[in-house]
Amino acid sequence: MLCACLYHHHTFTSSAFFSISQFELFRIQMSLCGSVSALNLRCGFRHVNSDMMNATSFRGSESMGHPLTIPTKTRPRKASHPLQVVCLDYPRPELENTVNFLEASYLSSSFRVSPRPTKPLKIIIAGAGLAGLSTAKYLADAGHKPLLLEARDVLGGKVAAWKDEDGDWYETGLHIFFGAYPNVQNLFGELGINDRLQWKEHSMIFAIPNKPGEFSRFDFPEVLPAPINGIWAILKNNEMLTWPEKVKFAIGLLPAILGGQTYVEAQDGITVKEWMRKQGIPDRVTTEVFIAMSKALNFINPDELSMQCILIALNRFLQEKHGSKMAFLDGNPPERLCMPIVDHIRSLGGEVKLNSRIQKIELNSDATVKNFLLTNGEVIEGDVYVFATPVDILKLLLPESWKEIPYFKKLEKLVGVPVINVHIWFDRKLKNTSDHLLFSRSPLLSVYADMSVTCKEYYNPNQSMLELVFAPAEEWISRSDSEIIDATMKELAKLFPDEISADQSKAKILKYHVVKTPRSVYKTVPNCEPCRPLQRSPVEGFYLAGDYTKQKYLASMEGAVLSGKFCAQAIVQDYELLVARGEGRLAEASIR
User: Fold this and answer.
1) Exposed (0-12), middle (13-18) or buried (19+): which is 377, by Cβ within 10 Å?
2) Is the N end or the C end of the chain the one with fewer CB atoms within 10 Å?
3) Rounded CA gap, 42 and 400, in Å?
4) Residues in a beta bridge with 6
5) Is 267 helix (H, G, I), strand (E, B) or coil?
């Protein structure tokens, strides 16, 4: 999904609008020499410019089959226009020399080069989403033996997907991989699967509600550096904001630019809507741009979302040349992303078990973890225990004696936000779409994409499959699938006026899947930041991972992966203490 959709979504420990000295950049680069060769892999994409869009093809992993070609006509550039299906993957952007990528690479390499443990720890990890997979992967890199337990029969957590009886996949969310996701990008490189990301044109495309079927674009020129490319994209777009509105918005942003991280963190207690008004920014800016952005980031509207979330996203998108550039995974996430991580873990002696649901965290007399009791009666014991589930599941399983500990008590404010992901297969190829993520600007829908065009595995030259994020979903999560589809079709009729009607008198629905997640990423409302826990808990030998824990990004795939690295780092740092603790328990047991 975009940041949440985009499962997205982001806190930075360094200056929010920061720079790094050439010396520091050189130091980081030198520290990585000889240890990150896998990160230099390139996709097998053919370089294609906009003049070659009349005959383009998917390129990349040969295991996915032969390249697919869609002949199309080039579309004229207008200020706003209906979209035309063009199927094109762009070369992987140059990310390796960005500060954030180098920092992420350095953290990854620290696990591979750390001293090998004389006694590898057996680490039990609950939850095989990206946070749990990341934790296990980097602990295995450091020489330990993780055992990853997943309650369901599918990998991925919030990026899980399932195959229906026709062999078609449907997913938990619409997942977008940004250039500004340095730890995710490093992970792809470390696994040797960079070619599984299908990079798209550096643009953001928004529907125009008062002009059904038309769209407005923000195009980021490749020849310009950041933040000039982003400023140019905003200045060149005249459909969504007037010049006076752009000027007032720019002036309103000055405190964030000048105040840095201290200012950004201070905005955690105010909503987007409140901040905009406080800065004298016209309400139309919120309506035209930030409703769509808020729903994409956290599935909620600007009157609920913390402004800190928006400022962090804007920071990354404006300060990194390719930060807002998007890629789609070339297939279903469990097989194309999660399984390579599992294979890596297993190759280093770790284990991953599905259908292993935790019923209870059982404690020792000193309130430390004794074992995990599974619903099938199996008892799982280890040297260290990690919970990498969503925060709502952790709260359900917290032992009573832990609930009043301030570290855990603060979790009460962190609550997952409901979201619905909708997949609709049509009887024809829709024309008013694009090989890209689209912002619907609908009151019911967030972002959507024609996955039959954007994703190699889902490619279909004759029929479209739209994947849409239905948000905010609070009032809809308990409604029937048919009600949700009816409401979705009414909105699609505005986006595709010539091709879709609510009564299906035009394009017909062949089938659909509705995936409801009652508690997805945590709801980034004001004053949540102080409640986010560090990965190292006050309970000796017990750790947390998940996008809700403290890390540079809020609720996102990047946040989940980074939280896993921080969790693994804390365990590696605590190694001597954890070994001594284990030996002490053995001595106590022998005396008894």
Assistant:
1) exposed
2) C
3) 50
4) 2
5) helix
Q: Give pTM, 2 decimals.
A: 0.85
**Helix, strand, coil % over all residues of the chain, rounded to 5:** 40, 20, 45
Evaluate if residue 63 carries a pLDDT over 50.
no
Residue 355 zone, left/alpha/beta (φ > 0; ψ -120 to 50; rest):
left
316 near 184, Cβ under 8 Å? no
* Bridge partner list, 468: 422, 448
Residue 388: closest CA among 537, 169, 529, 165:
537
What residues form DSSP beta bridges with 215?
Answer: 81, 207
What's the CA gap between 325 and 453, in Å, rounded?
A: 18
Whether a cis peptide bond, with omega within 30° of 0, leads into 146 is: no
Contact 371, 365 (CB under 8 A): no
Output DSSP code: residue 73.
P
Q: Read off the pLDDT band of 581 (50, 70, 90).
A: confident
Judged against a pLDDT cut of 80, whether residue 54 lies above it is answered with no
| Strand-strand pairing, 55-57 and 7-8 | unpaired
Six token digits for residue 484: 């949700």
Q: What is the pLDDT of residue 79?
A: 44
Question: Under the phi-then-psi rule, with left for phi > 0, alpha for psi from -120 to 50, and beta for the rest, what region is 260?
Answer: left
- Tell me the C-alpha to C-alpha distance, in Å, between residue 453 and each of 80, 198, 247, 544: 21, 11, 37, 38
